[in-house]
Amino acid sequence: MREHANCATPPRKELIPLIEAVDLTKRYGSKTAVDHISFTIEPGTVTGFLGPNGAGKSTTMRLIMGLDKPTEGTVKVNGHFYQDLRAPLCQVGALLDAKGLHGSRSARAHLTQLAVSNGIPTRRVDEVLDLTGLTPVAKKRVKGFSLGMGQRLGIAAALLGDPQVLIFDEPVNGLDPEGVKWVRETCRHLADQGRTVFISSHLMSEMAQTADHLLVIGRGRILTSGPVDEVIASATNDVVRVASPQAADLAAALNTAGIDTKAPEPGVLTTTMAPAARVGEIAAAHGIVLHELATQHASLEEAYLELTGNDVEYTAGSAPAPLPAAAARA
Ligand SMILES: Nc1ncnc2c1ncn2[C@@H]1O[C@H](COP(=O)(O)OP(=O)(O)OP(=O)(O)O)[C@@H](O)[C@H]1O
After folding, report:
1. What is the interface pTM, i.e. ipTM, of the complex?
2. Bridge partners, residue 34, by sequence
């Protein structure tokens, strides 16, 4: 057992490490960033916190870490408010903003300072440098670090107290494929050790590869949650596409059976209301010739849009807010 001075008696066996939010709300003036959300994050899993830009992910994570005060509701880590944790770094580690590093220090100096001020034995610094692959650059000033190295250093700092709960805000943002793979494998490894890993992203494809569970947020509200496969399945309808020289007859036969169709192009029908087998059976029963019968699986992006489409605060196509002068003229 490690002898972290301030971490010597983490209540690991007695308490289940988890994050629990109840009716959590944060308003900034008239802006509601987080809107009465409740959730629990379980140990031994990677939980993805998925939502478009401005959905409220960072705010929620800051509330968990006691960096902001909720307007209403509560959020606890390991059954305690963050500010009441006796050795916070040993219970929860977070990567919230990798840019907030002191430029003139070396990576080792940065971690050593953090260890000393939190009563963590300095030998742990070498362990986390090693775990995050930073040993070869440990003496370099963090000022010269690439984004990927900065993210690794942020994760090294989060791991310093060997905490059971880890919170990473958009850790793969701006990373190259190798960095993304490393973050993904690191999260998996930490969860496999029984830790609670809570990781945010605005990319569903990334979350599908990294997370076991998803918590989907839009405009400050939880839109859905559950195992990744279930969340994706619930947001997607398989589309059956059928091509026939008798498309009009087939459409009539399907409609009679209560199956609505669309005709995206001449001679082709699509439906989300019946599986391919049923469409084929109805065609056969009416002696209708088919040239093609296939099930198309909706893409992850489609599932994501289905989930968050109406809850996106900013979209690429949305018109920019008018400038004050323009607004005054209007
Ligand atoms: N300190 C603040 N003052 C005012 N509004 C804020 C503040 N922090 C966040 N907001 C607003 O709250 C909403 C949620 O922001 P938040 O950063 O939590 O979203 P996010 O899901 O993390 O998005 P992103 O991925 O873009 O960081 C946004 O509309 C944001 O502009």
Report:
1. 0.96
2. 26
